[in-house]
Amino acid sequence: MQEGLLPFPLKYPTIIGLSFSGIVVKVGSSVARFKLGDRVVTNSAGTIRNDSRFGAYQKYALTTQELIAKIGDEPFETAASVSNLYGDASALFLHFHLEKPSQELRSEHRAEKILIWGASSSFGAYATQLAAEAGYAVVGVASAQNIELVQSFGAAQFVDRKSPAVFQEVVAMGPYKAVLAAADTAHDQVVIGSILVAQGGGSFISTMGLRPGVILPSGVRCQFHQFIDDYLDLKNEEFTKWLWWQYLENAVLSKKLVLFPVQVVGGLSGVQAAWDLLKQGKVSGQRLLIAPNVE
């Protein structure tokens, strides 16, 4: 908030935080799918709704049953990272209109490539897995030290984000049916814009939107979406049920997902320290978590 990086306004006082896991301790009268004692993971809409009751960084938080999945005996810490998958699914299947994963891979997708920039981020990790599971060939861009991690997510090809020839290498592997910037900088967006120009133009989705000062070439557009809104839109009701109550639950309970590495940095008092680590660029290939009940 202090850095002005949140792409939506907040009113104060507020409690931020979107993804969390825990045990159901109370249910509303209209809740039929979950009961007391269920171990769940959720992604709350509280921050973008400016409703502090839904913020993740507190010991008890509200959420809506549409955005909850059961996690069985999966540890809360690893399950919390999985909820990022909702945004990946929205980007890939609702906005890029890619085919969803199914029991049988469609071989024709193997010739279609998806570019995931920032594939070693938590968002990029699950985007890579979803796209690969749906049968697409994923080209993952990340720092060289994370090549094995990205390959474990199912990327068919890898490019070092810091390579002086990153533009040429990525273009040579294309063209791309979809381009997702799971984690990017202003410089990254300039490079992505040039990549799209090389294949005739188009658009890419960035999880943070167009960075300040970035001017994209003609014929290139950066998209930003509040992915959580897609799941609160009644026209996407069936997709929401599929993602949260079918795909995500099955993926967690069957342990078929390669879970993104996590590190618990402490209780609520550790939020600032966690942000400082992120800001200083000291976090790569893992997600930092806060455990509210340890203090």
From TrEMBL:
Statement: the UniProt record of this protein carries the keyword Oxidoreductase: yes
GO MF: oxidoreductase activity, acting on NAD(P)H
Positions of the Alcohol dehydrogenase-like N-terminal domain: 10-71
Keyword field: Oxidoreductase
SUPFAM superfamilies associated with the record: GroES-like (SSF50129), NAD(P)-binding Rossmann-fold domains (SSF51735)
CDD domains: enoyl_reductase_like
Protein origin, superkingdom: Eukaryota
Record-stated family: Belongs to the zinc-containing alcohol dehydrogenase family.
Name the UniProt record assigns to this protein: Alcohol dehydrogenase-like N-terminal domain-containing protein
